[in-house]
Amino acid sequence: xxxxxxxxxxxxxxxxxxxxxxxxxxxxxxxxxxxxxxxxxxxxxxxxxxxxxxxxxxxxxxxxxxxxxxxxxxxxxxxxxxxxxxxxxxxxxxxxxxxxxxxxxxxxxxxxxxxxxxxxxxxxxxxxxxxxxxxxxxxxxxxxxxxxxxxxxxxxxxxxxxxxxxxxxxxxxxxxxxxxxxxxxxxxxxxxxxxxxxxxxxxxxxxxxxxxxxxxxxxxxxxxxxxxxxxxxxxxxxxxxxxxxxxxxxxxxxxxxxxxxxxxxxxxxxxxxxxxxxxxxxxxxxxxxxxxxxxxxxxxxxxxxxxxxxxxxxxxxxxxxxxx
Length: 324
Fold this sequence. Notes:
The protein is of the alpha/beta class. It is built from 11 helices and 11 strands. α8 packs antiparallel against α9 (about 255-285).
């Protein structure tokens, strides 16, 4: 049995995938690992080249519309490692983050579910170090720009554990960009919840683990560069509506009354953004402004629908395809 199964989903982005895989190979030296890469809607010629360039990677083709949960679960169900390291394709490991995370896990107390690295932006600045609790009210306030999640939850705190000089802190939740979890525990938790499409699978998993009494930690020294700000695209027109719908389902617990209480202020916030985007597009028309306008239009149309997040994504993805 290998130590770690590294799970990566890549949607036809070799510019993301190649640096990610190269960084894993370069920096991970102490633990054994397998890489299971889900090639989502991947160009056949590009996939053939990736297979040739990375013979040590297991490629799993995914050519149907699937979200974050479904695609990751395709690989997770084939994982042979003691741990699973879920990793975005738009990441790089500048140092031995994975070696350290495994070492952390083996030193932490029983009942630890997840250890996360610290995430950096592409310029090296801090993106996220641990996550606060993310209750429903925080989600609603965030849509109104009245609540910002702190980037560093460790500031001013004493570490909850120290492993070979590295400081670890209890975290209340995780980000799906990078985290390590025991494979058997992940299986017991049911893998990722496939009701959701792009958001909030990670928060739902963290909430579920904590509800069962498990602990989550972040290692301030284990660092992963996450280049998400450089990879956004017009796909947001399909992704964001599905994400908002999924978030409302999660934070309401699928209870109709609570859903309505959350949905109304979120709809009002998104409607305001839509009106602003319409004005900007009218005054300074551009493809980027049009994408922003259509994104907010699609969000407001999706909040009170009965469609699932996947159905919402599929609807707007097909709309995009018809334009090209």
